Amino acid sequence: MSLVKVLEDSAYKYPRRAAVIFGKRKITYQRLTEDIKRVSSHLISLGLKPRERVGLLLRNSPEFIISYFAILKAGGIVLPINNFLQVEEIKFILEDAQAIMLISELSQKEKISVLRLRLEHLEKVIIVDGEVPDLVSFSQFQEVLPCQWPRLDVDELAVILYTSGTTGYPKGAMLTHQNLLSNTRACSQFIKFKAKDSFICILPMFHSFSFTVSVLIPFLLGGKILIFDKMRPFAEIIKGIIYHRITIFIGIPALFQILAEVKLPWFFKLFSFLNPVKIAVSGADKLPVNVLGDFNKKFRFPLLEGYGLTEASPVVSVNPIDKRRKAGSVGLPLPGIRVKVVDKQDKKLPPNAIGELLVKGPNIMKGYWNRPQETKAVLQEGWLYTGDIAKIDEEGYIYIVDRKKDLIIHHGLNIYPREVEEVLYRIPQVSQAAVIGLKEERRGEVPVALVVLNPDKEISEKDIINFTRQQLAPYKVPRKVIFRETLPKTATGKIAKKALRAEINKG
Predict the structure, then answer these.
(1) By the 8 A CB rule, do 361 and 176 touch?
(2) Which CATH number fits domain 407-504: 3.40.50.300, 3.40.980.10, 3.40.50.2300, 3.30.300.30?
(3) CA-CA distance, 446 to 475, in Å (whole number)?
(4) Long-range contact list for 30-35, CB < 8 A, 24+ apart?
(5) In the chain, what are the domain boundaries?
(6) Contact 497, 448 (CB under 8 A)
(7) Could you tell me where the beta strands, DSSP code E, fall in 124-241?
(8) How far apart are CA 273 and CA 293, in angstroms?
(9) Where are the beta strands (DSSP E) in 108-244?
(10) Lower Cβ count inside 10 Å, N or C end of the chain?
(11) Full pLDDT tens readout for the chain, 507 residues
(12) What is the DSSP letter of 346?
């Protein structure tokens, strides 16, 4: 089986069922597979050969999905690119992967012009939503051309997903058809998704969590996907959920925090009665415990927190739908996935002891593209060293304490920023919080809190520090609080701690 075969099997079973809805466009499974064949045949005619890389620089749209599967059907490897990146960042990814083609859109025209001049190996640029002189356009792909589609093996590379580059340049995680299929099936089995479920896709498709959970899972089941290319106005999303009877809501913590905190106008209150949503799933970042509690009080459907990383295709664990769900935990590992926590000497630790989380299973990447040393550092005997600090309780539930790279070491003592942030989130006036290590000559690092307050709320730095002092050991208490109107975010809504660290420690 390959990802393409999974989609084609669903199209065989449910040819007239809606696969994708985007605005006023409704695409059936039969039409979707026909469009994929048409585009794929033209990619082959343009010179795409098996195992060659094709960049995808697109916003959420049916064309993203069509392009993705067309590349795979032609035997190519998909290179999804964060469309918020600047030219130099995009250039690095295309150059590192030696992509021979780029599929993009008119909104990226200026970036494309620069990239074409600076990348000799980039042979073709294809535009999906218009025509540009000297560029290939989707409008030219009118029929399926005669061609020989390659046989796709499950162990073949399907996607190279570039990580955000917490340190240094981003690295390309190599994921096979089998990696993604195993994760898709495990998620479906664990959360008990059904063929009649309808999914919403509002997170960027270039992100591993979004594409696996909001696209691949529905296609495996023969479900429906409602696509949005932006989150505002949110009223349109609510209308879409009600009108198209969306049952599975996929989001990120920032989105659920907004839903949990805001006073809903009458239209949104109507949502409580007409709401078809059965399950909400949060991923891509930590979900503050207070947000989970507030959300569950406000809405009548469960919010499941999960955990994953790009290198694991990406989902590792989820709080179960039919068993006990523990606040603060990211749940139990998916079927077929093994986890353990180890100390600095790689010795397995007992329940509730804190160490680095290791993951093993069919979902684990083959390695980093052209990075043998980095691959060796994180993949050992099939175990993926996640870089996340965690503990596992007696029942097997995983608790992520913090990122290894975010760890603050003060006088030899470990401070986990997430622990401090959870305390800050208990303060009613606090909307967002990030704790960063400030480097000092004598004390190594000291914790500093950056805080965004809720609208029309006030609290002093002294009061915040006094509150944390009552909850935390003295060495964990923030040395100062910096009030901000906003905190920088990544494309998937995570607080960009790398940027904050650089800002706080500059000079």
Answers:
(1) no
(2) 3.30.300.30
(3) 8
(4) 32/7, 32/62, 32/65, 32/66, 33/7, 33/8, 34/144, 35/62, 35/66
(5) 25-176, 407-504
(6) no
(7) 124-127, 136-137, 157-162, 172-176, 198-201, 224-227
(8) 20
(9) 124-127, 136-137, 157-162, 172-176, 198-201, 224-227
(10) C
(11) 899 999 999 999 999 999 999 999 999 999 999 999 999 999 999 999 999 999 999 999 999 999 999 999 999 999 999 888 888 889 999 999 999 999 999 999 999 999 999 999 999 999 999 999 899 999 999 999 999 999 999 999 999 999 865 445 789 999 999 999 999 999 999 999 999 999 999 999 999 999 999 999 999 999 999 999 988 887 888 889 989 999 999 998 878 887 887 666 555 556 666 778 999 999 877 888 888 888 888 888 899 999 999 999 999 999 999 888 898 899 999 999 999 999 999 999 999 999 999 999 999 999 999 999 999 999 999 999 999 999 999 999 999 988 777 878 776 677 888 889 989 999 999 999 999 999 876 667 889 999 999 988 999 999 999 999 998 888 899 999 999 999 998 877 788 888 898 888 875
(12) -
Instruction: Tell the residue number behind the tokens 């809903």, with chain if given.
Output: 264
Q: Rounded to an integer, what distance in angstroms lies between the CA atom of residue 321 and that of residue 298?
A: 18
For 489, the token pair is 């975010």
- Please report where in the chains the tokens 């469960």 appear, as a residue: 302
Say which amino acid occupies 312: A
Calpha distance 89→139 (Å, rounded): 29
* 3-state DSSP of 239-276: HHHHHCCCCEEEECHHHHHHHHHCCCCHHHHHHHHHCC
Length, in residues, of the chain: 507
- SS3 category, 176: strand
Could you tell me the pTM of the whole model?
Answer: 0.86
CATH top class, domain 25-176? alpha beta
